[in-house]
């Protein structure tokens, strides 16, 4: 149930992180240039932002109830450690809700500069709210800031636990860049589909260029951040790294297997790249990498689930970085958009693929930590509820999310079909 809720909620978090900043950028362009096209685009994207925020309220509320209902021993034992994070997230949520209301209804009621200023707290609240939730997750992966005695957390320092945690920084940067990648490619993908269907005026070109440029800049950077994150995992969670590869035994100069299936202590049918795992993990091709044999079988995560999720994340991320690089090269060198129909097909596919990579990354992080809910401190089976009726609740939750998904699709399609109040073109076509 928690996994289902996270899978639904995390894409909305990405939009909460990146979309307000994109809208503010478009409105800033309007304030600088006076071009009514940017004003039209900002107003239409504002409606989408409001709709997605409303859905995020539903999924976020469900998640908050699940934390207490599904994990009673976890929250009872460690609530004093991570509770500050959720408290800040709550304040951020209310600030975001208030200023979204001001921003949505202030288009014709506030001066242009005041209206732009009212959007800044939305972007800030999206940052602080997700920051604190990521800090809680980082603490679960690398617990600190307390002492456990008799099943109770003592000598609690919540600031040190959440914000002094070395695991926070790579998770934070990784998630924020992912937010811009997902939001950029999903939004650009919608306009790429329009391009494939023959809708390709100045409005559509502008609406595609802005999110696509942002995603194209972020995707290659994510490759470097991913390397940083993997090296942190190698140091702090070596069993998780071993699950990424399916490395059964501690090995010096460990190889990397691309694809393949882990079975009976080895990866079968994969493409072997000698010493690559050691090189990636420690920047040393002869470094020793700990294997799954360093812990009992009961303390290992489900290997193939973690491997497939990790390789899906890395594979899709690499393709997105390549697509972004192609776009940037053409844009910079030829001063125009790519013309190949295959490029726009790739951009249209990049939207859903970025969502797949996002969910795969979450599976990699969370399932790779198993069987621990707090790494090395509390097992998941010790934290989870023993209540009956969970299958009924799961089925009900799935139906709720299905209804919400249908509602979101209906709302977004109505917004997309609403007529455009476009000004007469007075400047050169954007992106031509």
Task: Report on this structure.
By secondary structure, this protein is mostly helical. It contains 13 helices and ten strands. The strands form five sheets. Strands 1-2 form a two-stranded antiparallel sheet. Strands 3-8 form a two-stranded antiparallel sheet. β1 and β2 form a beta hairpin. The radius of gyration is 23 Å and the shape is globular. The N and C termini lie far apart (48 Å). The C terminus is likely disordered.
Q: Order of helices and strands, N to C? A: HHHHEEHHHHEEEEEHEHHEEHH
Average of the residue pLDDT scores = 87
The dominant shape is globular
- Distance between the terminal alpha carbons, to the nearest Å? 48 Å
Strand order of the largest sheet: 1-2
Low-pLDDT stretches are 426-432
Measured by DSSP, the beta-strand proportion falls in 5-15%
Note the quaternary state here: single chain
**How helix-rich are the residues, as a percent range?**
over 70%
Largest sheet features:
2 strands, antiparallel
Radius of gyration: 23 Å
């Amino acid at each position: 149930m928690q996994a289902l809720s996270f899978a639904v909620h995390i894409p909305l978090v990405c939009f909460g992180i990146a979309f307000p900043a994109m809208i503010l950028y478009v409105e800033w362009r309007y304030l600088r240039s006076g071009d009514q096209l940017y004003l039209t685009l900002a107003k239409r994207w504002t409606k989408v932002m409001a709709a997605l925020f409303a859905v995020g309220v539903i999924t976020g509320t469900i998640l908050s109830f699940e934390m207490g209902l599904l994990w009673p021993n976890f929250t009872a034992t460690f609530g004093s450690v991570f509770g500050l994070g959720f408290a800040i997230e709550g304040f951020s949520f209310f600030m975001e809700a208030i200023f979204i209301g001001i921003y949505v209804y202030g288009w014709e009621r506030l001066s242009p500069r005041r209206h732009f200023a009212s959007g800044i707290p939305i972007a800030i609240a999206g940052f602080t709210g997700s920051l604190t939730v990521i800090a809680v997750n980082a603490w679960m992966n690398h617990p600190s800031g307390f002492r456990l005695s008799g099943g109770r957390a003592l000598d609690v320092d919540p600031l040190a636990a959440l914000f002094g945690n070395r695991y926070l920084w790579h998770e934070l940067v990784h998630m924020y860049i992912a937010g811009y990648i997902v939001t950029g490619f999903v939004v650009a993908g919608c306009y790429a589909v329009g391009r494939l269907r023959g809708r390709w005026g100045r409005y559509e070109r502008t609406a595609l260029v802005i999110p696509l440029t942002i995603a194209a800049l972020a995707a290659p950077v994510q490759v470097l951040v991913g390397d940083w994150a993997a090296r942190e995992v190698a140091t702090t969670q070596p069993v998780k790294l071993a699950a990424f590869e399916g490395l059964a035994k501690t090995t010096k100069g460990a190889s990397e297997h691309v694809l393949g299936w882990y079975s009976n202590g080895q990866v079968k049918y994969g493409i072997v790249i000698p010493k690559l795992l050691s090189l990636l993990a420690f920047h040393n091709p002869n470094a020793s990498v700990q294997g799954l044999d360093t812990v009992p079988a009961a303390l290992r995560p489900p290997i193939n689930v973690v491997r497939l999720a990790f390789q899906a994340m890395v594979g899709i991320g690499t393709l997105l970085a390549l697509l972004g690089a192609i776009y940037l090269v053409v844009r910079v060198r030829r001063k125009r958009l790519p013309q190949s129909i295959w490029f726009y097909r790739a951009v249209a596919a990049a939207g859903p693929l970025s969502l797949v990579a996002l969910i795969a990354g979450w599976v990699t992080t969370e399932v790779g930590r198993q069987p621990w809910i707090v790494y090395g401190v509390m097992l998941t089976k010790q934290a989870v509820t023993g209540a009956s009726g969970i299958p009924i609740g799961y089925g009900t939750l799935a139906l709720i999310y299905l209804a919400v998904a249908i509602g979101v699709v209906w709302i977004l399609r109505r917004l997309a079909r609403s007529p455009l109040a476009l000004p007469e073109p007075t400047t050169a076509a954007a992106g031509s």
